[in-house]
Structure formats: C-alpha cells, structure tokens
Amino acid sequence: MKIVDQKGRVTLHKADTRGHADHGWLDAWHSFSFANWYDPERVHFGALRVLNDDTIAAGKGFGTHPHDNMEIITIVLEGALKHTDSMGNEGIIKAGDVQVMSAGTGVRHSEFNPDPEHRTKLFQVWLFPRERGAAPRYDQITLDPKERDNRFQQIVSPDPNDSGTWIGQDAWFQLGKFDGILEVNYPVKRAGNGVYALVVSGSAKIHGQLLTARDAIGITEVDAVDIITGSEGAEILLIDVPMQLN
Q1: What is the CATH number of the domain that holds 43?
Q2: What is the largest CA-CA distance in the chain?
Q3: Which among 80, 105, 196, 200 is least surrounded, fewest beta carbons within 10 Å?
C-alpha cells in the first residue's frame, strides 16, 4: 500500500502480504519478488532487491550456487550457518554475526545449518551494487548486542573505516532493540536515499504508521524518520538505501 503526504512517500508492507514458500527444510518469507513469487508492485525498493526472512531446518541448507553483481548481507538471528565459497572462505556464522559477500564478477557458495537438532533463523538482504564488475569480496563480523540497547547500532556502511562491515553501495544498515515506549529520530545518511524499516519483534509507530512484528515500511523524500516504540518495546532493522539505480 502506497501513501503520499506532506512528509514524503510511504509504502506499507504488512507481514501477511509477503511472499511465502515452505519447502519443508526451508520456510521463507519474501518482502520482494523472489523465486516463484512475483508481485509487480514489489520488485525492489531502490537498490534494495531482496529481503528474505528464512528459517532453515536442522542439518539442512542451500547447495553450491552462483551469484554475481549483488551485495549480499546475511544477519543470523538464531542458530548458526556454515558458509563455503569459491573465494576459499569457510566458516560458521553465528547468531549476532553479520556476513557480507560482494558477488561482483561472480562467486559460488553454499550455506548450511550445521546443527543437527536446532533450526537457524536469518535475514538475507540483497542490494544492487554501486558498480558492476567489481572483484568479489567476503567479510564477517561479530556484533556486541549491548551496542543496540535503546539505540541504533550501525552494522553495515559504504565506508571500510566506519563501524560495522562495508559494502559496495551507498547504503547503511542499523539494528536497534528498544525497551518500552521510546521516541527515536533517525536522520537519513545520504540525500536521495530512502529508508526501509522492518519491525523484527514488538511494535512501533514509524512515520505515523503502526507496525507489529515483521511489518515493514518504505519511506522516501524525507530527511529523517521518526519512530515511537510500543509499550512492549521493539527490535527494528533499518536499511538506508539509494533510490536511484545506476
């Protein structure tokens, strides 16, 4: 649903309007058109192409497959993920970790839940890159969750010298976990960027719209975004992303 007012343009994506695919070993919810689910109104939000909310069954995962010219960010929420790629990287991404894979000219990788008993939950986000044909790159960081208590913690930026990890796009990712009713103002990082905000848990009024768990809102043509979290608090993922594609 799109809304236009004096405070910018707003797109609402309620949780139950997302695409859904249950493959048994993979339960996936798609904020944007993906695989067999296609909605012409939900192909991308600026450079944000994919936001998948995945649950991977114990001991299962994605076999080796290719990517190119895409910035891929994986945020593990619960459990762990084993990663292996054609660049020679191999390791375990645990809850609280953020992985970046800049696919560039091309990379092949696999992703598996290494735990034989417990599920893995994660967000996987794809962004169109600033420039095509870059050299593939991999990075992984472990975050201190205390750094997002009642504030936003930057987890991704375009600057290798900034906090969090970095990607080849003028985009910033923030995670915040707020207790009770709090008012937060988020200034947009770059002129022309929009903000896509997903409520991970709890509830919040974002840009005047009430959202509950897994609801999302896209906001453009603003300099800042106002957030009021609900009485039960909220965990929020913000993606500050260019709206113009190169």
Answers
A1: 2.60.120.10
A2: 52
A3: 105
